[in-house]
Amino acid sequence: MPIELPIELPIESHLQGGVLQRRANMRPRIEGRVLPLVLQSRLGRFLVRQWAWGMMSPQQVQKTASLELQDFRQLVENCSVPNVTMQSFPRLEDLEALARLGNSGELKNNMNRDLMELTDLQAIRPSTTRLPVKKVGTPWGIYCDISILWPHSLFATIFNSFQGAWCERICPSKDELEKFWDSQANHPNLKDHPMTKRANWKRRAVPIAIHGDGVPVTGCGKSWCKSMLVLSWCSMVGHGSTLEMNFLIVSMMSALFMKSGTTKQLLWKRIVWSLQQLFDGQWSAYDEYGAKYGDRTPEGRRAGTNLCGDDGFFGVLWGLKQDLEHLVSEFGWKDYRRLDTGPCGFCPCDVNTFPWKDFRLAKSLWIPRAYDICTWLASWRNKHCIFDLSGVTLFTVIVDMLHVKYLGTDMYFNASVLWLLCFKVLPGDCHANLEIVWQAVLQWYDSNPSAERYSNLKLSMFCKPASPNASFPVLKGKAAEIRALTPALYSCWCKYMDPRDTQHKEIKVALACSVRVDRILDEQKGAYALPAVAAREFKTMIFSFLVVQNSLGKWYPEHGMKLFNVTIKSHYLAHLGLNAVHINPRLGFCFQGEDFMGKIKMITGMSARGNNIYELSGKTLAKYCRGMQLVLEGRGD
Ligand SMILES: [Zn+2]
Questions:
Q1: SS3 159
Q2: CA 121 to CA 627: how far, in whole Å?
Q3: pLDDT digit string, tens, across residues 387-413
Q4: Is the domain of 575 the same as that of 611?
Q5: 213 C-alpha vs ligand 1 centroid, how far in Å?
Q6: Are residues 72 and 50 in the same domain?
Q7: Are 281 and 409 within one domain?
Q8: 290: domain range?
Q9: How far apart are alpha carbons 620 and 251 in whole angstroms?
Q10: Which residues are close to ligand 1, an ion, with C-beta < 5 A?
Q11: Would you say residue 195 lies in a domain?
């Protein structure tokens, strides 16, 4: 029983300014369709959003709309102004439609179907793929249909059905694509890249990045629901919030992965099948298992045609974003924790022959031996299948600054500076000293109001107050808080340091370099690669910081103070400094706990309640697809 849609709303009314202009220039794909009625009242929009993301059942939606209408009717009946009737409020028509769901609440099982028809949230449909997974609680495996949103398929859907979103989230313009590729002229992956042989490639190739993360899930009360793998992709030239820009590929409970690695191996092989089509820009004649589609099937008929019509856009994997742990667990990268056997996949460093801690630009032995594509290929036999894609190499891997600097070197360095101020430099007892430091930090925050602030500072946030010298200090906090503390700490240190003390002077230099590194990235916000001058300064600042950090990390422990821990993250920060000339480290930022990941965690938690682990990917993805369509249509406010 399709519900009649009496009026057609212009979608442009949601948009403003430049976006409107850009959309007006595009082919009117959205305008042709009758837009769902439930766009009108605020409550109606809210109810649809809640249902779409799985936070409300269709029954709750129907009940809420119906109660609201009853209240309103009573209000109208009691109204003393003449000629006021329900028809005076056309914006309530959407609530009326929602209240009519399931024959006005009588047929509860029909409500979801009615809502789907009413809202038309069926444009994005996940696929399923059959994978061998662990049978939970047993040593055996079983086959399970996992829901997945193939990147190539969603790429085509967004282009063909959501032109507005395409222009903002995927490809702002062909000029912008060209600008991106011009900035990558010296990128090692571009040399002899097969796409450069394609006609007009700079105006058709959309650079995309894949983000992978192991995400903890809490609060759904199931023993198997503790952590999950979340894979998503985004365009590297798109704009928007993390929810608007990142597109889920799959979310799978870690408990499903077989110890032998078979599940993950096959999952990635299938994803590579999709990425290959994305790169070809054409639908394949073969399914993900390698079987040819029948000539008369819809898939068989579209084989060999373009994903994106005459424009011929295609997507090329240009960035792999993840933390170091994911790099090891998913891609078999060299384990950063195993210093003795070589902790780095970017160079042959080790403890003794090519010491990984040596950051002297002119003398270090590992820097001139950092791999190029040829030496990297020779260094690693059993590569992960993601590197089978043309032009995907070690330079596709973008080291994540959040994990190696803010939650890496800064986390240790800033904590040691705080420790020195509280336990050595300032004259009072540690609590009084901390208060002095905190006042200085607050003062800096006040003059720089945009910073992400700590709301307080306690000794326990960087050391064990009872035994402050038992282990290296580590600063707690979010990446953005730690980042914003560095300049505050620099100004505080300058104020209280002893200008005659060699180590104090070194600390000042290191903090200044660390601040400058972050400033350069702020200044180069829109750049796809750092311009040569900025890249040179960025690299120099990182290596100067690391050299000083290393020297402090030797001196203080030798003098009885466990300070300035130098970990392997320092080494990965060095590689990030070397690669910034090819790609702006900003493009590799892995934001955590933001709107995208927040939504995925939430819908997974909600879906886990009434379902078993094998159904979870399907239930989660169904909600995600509805919610994502609202976001793509600009109805996700
Ligand atoms: Zn290395």
A1: helix
A2: 8
A3: 999 999 999 999 999 999 999 999 999
A4: no
A5: 22
A6: yes
A7: no
A8: 147-254+268-318+591-632
A9: 8
A10: 344, 346-347, 349
A11: yes
| pLDDT tens digits, 430-463 | 999 999 999 999 999 999 887 789 999 999 999 9
Total domain count, the chain: 4
Give 439-467 as a DSSP string. HHHHHHHHHSTTS---S---GGGTS-TTS
> What distance in angstroms lies between residue 371's CA and the mean position of ligand 1's atoms?
9
Burial status of residue 526 (CB atoms within 10 A of its CB: 0-12, 13-18, 19 or more): exposed
Of the candidates 151, 385, 123, the one whose C-alpha atom is nearest the C-alpha of residue 274 is: 151
Opening angle at CA 364, ends 359 and 366, nearest 5: 100
Name the band, by pLDDT with cuts 50, 70 and 90, for residue 588: confident
| 96/239 same-domain check | no
Residue 558 CA to ligand 1 centre (angstroms): 26
If you measure from the C-alpha of residue 503 to the centroid of ligand 1, how many angstroms do you get, rounded to a whole number? Answer: 27
Q: What is the C-alpha to C-alpha distance for residues 136 and 48, in angstroms, rounded to an integer?
A: 35
State in Å: Cα 533 to ligand 1 middle: 23
564 CA → ligand 1 middle, Å: 20
128 in a structural domain: no
CA of 128 to the centre of ligand 1 (A): 39
Structure tokens at 635: 């109805």
Q: Do 482 and 448 have their domain in common?
A: yes
- Report CA(573)–ligand 1 centroid distance (Å): 9
179/30 same-domain check = no
pLDDT tens digits, residue range 20-62?
333 333 322 333 333 445 456 888 889 999 999 999 999 999 9
How are strands ordered across the β-sheet holding 247-253? 247-253, 227-235, 205-216, 314-322, 397-399
Is 131 part of a structural domain of the chain?
A: no
Residues 381 and 482 in one domain: no
Distance CA(321)–CA(514), nearest Å, equals 22
Here the tokens at position 60 are 């709750």
Q: How far is residue 539 CA from its own chain's centroid?
A: 25
CA dist 610 and 617 (Å) reads 13
319 and 207 in contact (C-beta within 8 Å)? yes
Amino acid of residue 29: R
Question: What does the alpha-carbon distance between residue 189 and residue 582 come to, in Å, rounded to a whole number?
Answer: 10
CA distance 110 to 117: 11
- Of 375, 397, 419, the residue that ends a domain is 397
Distance 337 CA to ligand 1 centre (A): 13
Q: Is residue 98 part of a domain?
A: yes
If we measure between CA atoms, which residue out of 543, 521, 531 comes closest to residue 186?
531
User: Are residues 306 and 166 part of one domain?
Assistant: yes
